[in-house]
């Protein structure tokens, strides 16, 4: 998924608390039919997916995105001391 071409809504960003997003390096992309699509900095770690499943307590679908871009988006949208969703244009 190309995050450069995607606007992330504040509502979707707020589905994952900032501390959780930073800790698990996860970025919510969009919600479709109650399933949250997320991108991870390190999507190939099975333990991370299990932990995220436990923490989110909801159905989610992993989407493929450039890990560097996911990290940049997390830093932008979930900066400490900044309200989530204050900047929601593409990364």
Describe this structure in words.
The protein has one domain: GMP Synthetase, Chain A, domain 3 (2-Layer Sandwich), CATH 3.30.300.160. The protein is built from 4 helices and 3 strands. The protein has helices at residues 10-13, 18-24, 46-56, 67-77; strands at residues 26-32, 35-40, 60-62. It starts with 9 loop residues before the first helix and ends in a 14-residue tail after the last helix. The mean pLDDT is 86.
Structural class: alpha+beta
The first-level CATH class name: Alpha Beta
Q: Quick one: overall form?
A: globular
Report the end-to-end length measured between terminal Cα atoms. Answer: 13 Å
Helix content: 25-40%
Could you give a quick summary of the protein structure above?
The protein has 91 residues and is α+β, with helices and mostly antiparallel strands.
How are the secondary structure elements laid out?
Blueprint: H1 10-13, H2 18-24, E1 26-32, E2 35-40, H3 46-56, E3 60-62, H4 67-77
Parallel strand pairs: 2-3
Antiparallel strand pairs: 1-2
Short key terms for the protein model shown above:
GMP Synthetase, Chain A, domain 3; alpha+beta; 36% helix; 91 residues; 3-stranded mixed beta sheet
């Amino acid at each position: 998924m190309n995050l450069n071409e995607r606007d992330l809504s504040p509502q979707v960003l707020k589905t994952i608390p900032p501390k959780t997003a930073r800790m698990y390096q996860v970025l919510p992309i969009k919600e479709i039919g109650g399933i949250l699509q997320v991108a991870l900095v390190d999507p190939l770690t099975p333990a991370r997916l299990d932990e995220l499943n436990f923490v989110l307590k909801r159905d989610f679908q992993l989407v493929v995105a450039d890990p560097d871009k996911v990290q940049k988006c997390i830093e932008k949208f979930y900066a400490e001391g900044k309200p989530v969703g204050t900047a929601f244009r593409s990364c």
